[in-house]
Structure formats: structure tokens, C-alpha cells
Amino acid sequence: MNKYRTHTCGELRGSDCGKQVRLSGWIHRKRDLGGVLFVTLRDNYGITQVLAAPGTQAYTDFNNLRVESVVTIEGKVISRGGNINKDMPTGEIEVEVSSVTLQSTSEVLPFQVADEDNAPETTRLTYRFLDLRREKLHKNILLRSRVIASIRRRMIEMGFTEFQTPILTSSSPEGARDYLVPSRLYPGKFYALPQAPQQFKQLLMVSGFDRYFQIAPCFRDEDARADRSPGEFYQLDVEMSFVTQDDVFAYLEKMFYGLFTEISDWKVTEPAFPRITYEDAMMRYGCDKPDLRYGLEISDVSDIFAASDFSAFKSVVEAGGCVRAICVDNVADKSRKFFKDLEDYAKEIGAKGLASLVYTDSEIKGSLAKPLSDASKNALRERMGAKNGSGLLIVADDKNKASVILGKVRIRLADELDLREKNSYRFCWIVDFPMFEKDEETGQTIFSHNPFSMPQGGMEALLTKDPLTIKAYQYDIVCNGIELSSGAIRNHLPEIMYKAFEIAGYDSSVVDSKFGGMIKAFKFGAPPHGGIAPGVDRIVMLLANEPNIREVIAFPMNQNAQDLLMQAPNEATEKQLKELHLKIVD
Questions:
Q1: 163 CB neighbour count, 10 Å cutoff
Q2: Strand pairing report for 322-328 and 355-359
Q3: C-beta atoms surrounding 461 within 10 Å
Q4: Which candidate, 75, 193, 378, 499, has a CA 20 to 30 Å from the CA of 479?
Q5: pTM of the full predicted structure?
Q6: Residue 471 bridge partners (DSSP)
């Protein structure tokens, strides 16, 4: 018999009544009811209620112990009779304790573990080991393990091979700041922690491995957000040879659909996932990560206002701008304050204003009801499919700005009106990203996204087209308004890579110095290849239905990139600095 337990705290059922058992765990709660001391004992697997009768040594022992102390108990399993707790898997039984062995005591807790405690996040992260004992967070971390195990199993079943790539590598321009590691052996030189295994996974394809994956740690010195942890994160890194964009989508859709239907009972988009071009996404949703759980699509109504006599909006269209609108159902009963608050919000995010029209049985209301002609109002109603009770929200501005503003208003409306489809995961692909864009500050043509993407049209497009019109074989996968990953079919031809970088303002020497290993490999025969790297933390965040990514990471940093438990970052000793040939300069 195991020294500490015959069963876990989540294992015993009614069929175990009469057994002598041994359990170990943390004292979760204590309640004295009519002289009988009821204690719930908790371990990794669940909770079991135990009881100690008055006058027994077990009663005295429990009375003298704080919650969260660790004990081993022995006793007999008995039925709860008519007091079954249907909310507990072990709710049919309890254990009548005959002996208590103390394994370790707990000090006074900085916050409650057994109950929901709105402790400050700083306190929770400082005592993360206690925080992880709380039911919700404990389940989230176990869920994370299940998710990774499912991903790994599915990737292997689809013929992928798991690899490990270096953690100490060279710095490369990936779009964020590197974490640098000073070299002891080479004074003044530094390694970099990888922002992603991008070059290594492409090199594995050049080396003749056909299907790669890795649950890869990545390191980026960037600020925190609700859906992004500072410092480090994990991604499902994937690369495959001799594939088109469609092939990549097919593999990932199979993996995501299988994973999400295995872990959750919510509705999941079935393959093939919808594909939306970047241009359409920006036009219809005002962002490149649309939430498809609700409608409120943006429409262009510039032509209606261009033909109207409403000079304020007509002049915007004539100056090269646009007028765009969204239609919201069932808002006829909303107060003026509702529309005023929306307009104030739109102004906060850069709009000049937010016009409105509300259609009812008897009248048309809103800020444009008087200025617009009946013909224009009816044309808008027909274009937008506005029913009785529906309202139009309209912005006139620069073409890109108008959609972005309405995209944010769209999200605000979904929050306020509770429009999102319940218990569902809605996936889509965003495709045809622009290869290049113009830097607003310098006016220079720069890479829009990933410099390693293959331009659509290859070398001919780079030689003959306006760079700002060239699309890349670049794609994002989005779920419920969260971008899970970017990916691309890679540029595997040296001459195309040199030309693409030349357009972005880099000569061949920069390519050779920054990406020397990869460009050299491409000169020795590289297969067409492509891949993607969905974020593991964001996947778990979705499946756990958590708005904050720190709730699905065992030991996260805070928003200021500090590990409050381990007190990192901290100062190096003089000896360490000397070994690394470093000096701290104020």
C-alpha cells in the first residue's frame, strides 16, 4: 500500500462505502456543525469531505491546523445518505477519520484559496504557488496540458515529426526587440533568444525533412496585452515541404477542428473554414481579425451620398474619401444617450462624428433624419436592408479610417447589445495580405508583414508591378476575433528574396549578413515550403473562455515584464558581470 494514499481525493464513490482508505492533500475548508468537524480535503484530482467526531484525536488535530496545511488521513468511507452533494463528483460519500498525520503546516494565507478572492494581481503573482491551488486556475493549467497533448498526438497522426531548435541563436529582424545573452567566451558579442524558430524550421525543410512541428518557446521583448504575455510565449510551430496554401489550410483545419471538438462541447466551424481577403476584412469588419459570431458588416454607401444634396458628406466623397455604414437591429427603443455615447466613443477613437438614422413604422429618427432627402433615406434603407426598428450608424472619412472606426464601434455594439453567438468558436482565414506598404513617417516602401513570404506572381510581379499592389501568399487564422497565428508560403528562391529586400530598401549585403545561413541554404536546392505557428497560450485562453492570457500560464510575468515570485529581472553580481565582460553604466 502507498504510504500516503490508497485513493485520490477525486476518486471515491458510493460503491466504495465500507472501505478503509488513506487520503493525502491540503485542508481546503473546515466547518464545525453541531460538534462534528467537517473538513474538505483537496489534491490535484478533486475534493473529498471527511469528518471528525467530537472527543476524538482527529477532531483535536484538525482543530489545531490551519487551512492549506497538508495532511494524510485514514478512515472509513461512509454514505452521506440524504445529504448527497450533486455538485461534487465525490458527493455521495464522506470519510470518517480515524487518524490524522501532519505532513506540513501552512502560515496565515495572504488571500483565500478555497473561495473566490478578489486579491490584487500583484499579490496573486507574488504567491503564484497559492494562486495555482485555486480551482479555476488549477483547471486552466491542467487544460493547457490536455491541449498540448492533443495537439502533439494529432500532428504525429498527420505525419509530422517533432523537432527541437536552438534557444541560443543570432539576432534577426523579426519585428520585435530581441532578448540578448552576452557571451562569456567572445567578449562584446551576444546570442539572442529566438523570437520564433523561423529560420531553423525553414532550414529543416531545405535539409530534406518533410513535415516539422514543435511546441516552441519564443522570446520577444515587447509590452503586455490581455492576449499577449510579455517576454515569452509558446506556439505550435509548423512547416511543411511541397505544399500550397490550400494544403497548409487543410492540415491546420483538421487539427483545429479535432482539437476544439475534443476539448469543448461548444459549436465549432467545420472545415473548410471561411476565407476572407485582407482587403475585404478591412472593408467589411474594420480589422484583420474579425469576430464572425455576429453580423454588423460595414457597407460602402459613398455613391448614395455622392448623389445626395447633403454637402457635408458629399464633399468628403468628392475629396477622395468615403461614407460607410453599419445596420443594427432592434435599436428604435434606445435612448438619445445610447446614440450620444456611441458618437462620443467614435470621436475618442478618431472620428469627426457618428451620424445615425433609425427606421420605425411611423417615422425616421436620428441625426440625419432632417438633413437627408426622403430619396436618400430610402436608398440607404434598401441598400442596408434596414427593417423597422433598425438603425444605421454612418461615418464619413478617409477610406481606411472610416472602416477602422466603424470596426471598433461594431465591437462596442456587440458588447453593449450582447450580440455574439453563445458557446461557439467561429474560425476563418484572412488571406492575400499586401506584400509591401508605405511607411507613414518616411514614405519608404517597407515589408507589410513577413519578409520571408512568397510574393504572388513571383519575380515577374516584383519587376513589373507597383510594389504596393503586390499580394503575398500570407495568411492569418482567426477565431472569435482573436488572431491565433500568421503564416505564409515561403520565398525559397534567392533571386526573389534579394529583389524583395531591395524593394524594401535593403541591398544584398544586408540579406547575406542577417539571413546568411538561410540564403546560403537556398542556393543549394530548396523545396517550395510553407507553414504557420498558432499561439498555444491563445488557444488555451479560448478553450478556457478566459479574457486574460495570464490565467492560462502557470508562472506568467506581470504587465511590466516582472516575475514577482522569482523576483526577476534582478541584479547580477560583480563576478558575473566580470565573467561576461560587462559594466553597468548609469
A1: 16
A2: unpaired
A3: 20
A4: 193
A5: 0.93
A6: 434
